[in-house]
Amino acid sequence: MERRELGKTGEKVPVIGIGGWNIGNTRSREEWDKQVASLVRAVELGCNFVDTAEIYGDGKSERLVSEVLKGQRDKIFLATKVSPNHLQYEDVLAACERSLERLGTKFIDLYQIHWPNPGVPIGETMKAMERLVKEGKVRYIGVSNFGVGEMEGAQESLSKSELASNQVEYSLASRLIEDEILPFCEREKLTVIAYSPLARGRIANTIPQTVLSKYQMSPAQLMLNWVTYRESVVAIPKAAKLEHAEENAHSLDRRLSTDDYGLLSKLHA
Ligand SMILES: NC(=O)c1ccc[n+]([C@@H]2O[C@H](COP(=O)([O-])OP(=O)(O)OC[C@H]3O[C@@H](n4cnc5c(N)ncnc54)[C@H](OP(=O)(O)O)[C@@H]3O)[C@@H](O)[C@H]2O)c1
């Protein structure tokens, strides 16, 4: 699996990771085990960047991820998120403790602010984030769903750390970030973590057969190949099904040519 530097951290993460939304939220033990197996397989295949959030399934996603981490914490780059209603200083610290407990780990690799909250000064949140870094509970700080002004504010509020990433929606079907957010991240060397890179399962049915045959790839694989074409982007598709996890892990086996990247971009402009 190809890897790319996360922001300016020097840390390399896989270009295709794993999304954790809507996993763990099941009453069936069989379904739970299948989801764990799918994530474990994805990690085995090199997609060892696992993204979750305290809000997903009210903590159940983090609990499921804790099973994936068992015996292989050192192999996984673990990202989670603090919710926008927990951005006051003490709340950030408490939310992080709860996530660490649910995840069964002593540290989070990337701790992200899930959504901005204009009601809480960003400086207050970042002060807590930097304390968590100092205490070794968090390695890198990221944001999610931040616009350009909000990213600038976040960067300016950090005194000892660099902002590493912004997690935003990006796919062939959703290209809003190309106007301002993506160029800003490229200029500032922040990684764009593309969420919903498979358009939440609405897989593109417009990719020409000639392109599918040329690369011998599925439409989902080409969507992931397309979304990670730019050096600044990594993607976190969610795959509860083992066959999806395996398919996604092979989506970069052949890279789209510049011409075909352009063709797919034009078709979905
Ligand atoms: N920061 C945020 O505000 C935010 C918002 C949304 C999402 N996210 C993150 O981004 C992750 C991914 O986004 P998402 O879950 O919204 O959507 P997504 O990854 O675009 O799509 C997931 C859907 O695609 C299906 N799928 C996966 N691989 C496939 C394949 N090879 N062929 C056909 N279908 C396939 C999955 O099915 P199965 O699961 O059944 O395999 C699932 O239904 C989330 O899990 C979460 O970690 C973050």
Structure description:
This protein has 269 residues and is of the alpha/beta class. The protein has one domain: TIM Barrel (Alpha-Beta Barrel), CATH 3.20.20. Helices cover 39% and strands 17% of the residues. It contains ten helices and ten strands. The protein has helices at residues 29-44, 60-69, 89-103, 122-134, 148-157, 181-188, 209-215, 219-227, 242-249, 258-267, and strands at 3-5, 12-14, 18-19, 49-51, 77-82, 108-113, 138-144, 163-169, 191-195, 233-235. The strands form two sheets. It has an eight-stranded parallel β-sheet with strand order 3-4-5-6-7-8-9-10. The longest helix is centred in the first third of the chain and has 16 residues, at 29-44. The radius of gyration is 18 Å and the shape is globular. The two termini are 28 Å apart. Bound molecules: NADP nicotinamide-adenine-dinucleotide phosphate.
Give me some keywords for this one.
eight-stranded parallel β-sheet, TIM Barrel, 39% helix, alpha/beta, 269 residues, 10 strands, binds NADP nicotinamide-adenine-dinucleotide phosphate
